[in-house]
Amino acid sequence: MPNIGPAELLVILLVALVVFGPRKLPELGKSLGHGLREFRRSTQGLKDGLSLDAPTPAVPAAQPAPVTAAAVSAQAVSAQAVTATPAGHVTPQA
């Protein structure tokens, strides 16, 4: 997107002057300024609120425990036992 230079800005201001007239243009500029100021205040308040609500962690997050071969084989044996059980037969839980 190209930048707006002085020539483009002058054309935009002239079109606004023709469309709105010399009496209404200062009022529109004033209301636009008030709107931008209020928007800036509200976004700054939101940023401040978010930075206060989200504290930075003092301790780095714990790493998950490594998966061992014994844990993987135990899970595989459990999965085989579950799939080998007949559909009508219920085994008691230990």
Treating each run of at least 4 consecutive H or I residues as one helix, how many helices? 3
Percent helix: 55-70%
Name the structural class.
Answer: mainly alpha
Largest sheet: none
> If you average the pLDDT, what whole number results?
77
Please give the radius of gyration in angstroms.
34 Å
Order of helices and strands: HHH
Low-confidence region ranges: none
Strand content: under 5%
The first-to-last residue Cα distance is 69 Å
Q: Describe the global form.
A: elongated
Give the tally of β-strands. Answer: 0
**Oligomer designation:** single chain
Summarize the structure.
This protein is mainly α and 94 residues long. It has helices at 6-20, 25-53, 69-84. The protein has a domain at 25-53.
What does this structure look like?
Keywords: Cell membrane, Membrane, Protein transport, Translocation, Transmembrane, Transmembrane helix, Transport. It is a single-pass membrane protein. It is elongated and about 90 Å long. The model has no long low-confidence stretch (mean pLDDT 77). Helix content is 64%, strand content 0%.
Draw up the topology in text.
Layout: H1 6-20, H2 25-53, H3 69-84
What are the key terms here?
94 residues; mainly alpha; 3 helices; 64% helix; elongated; membrane
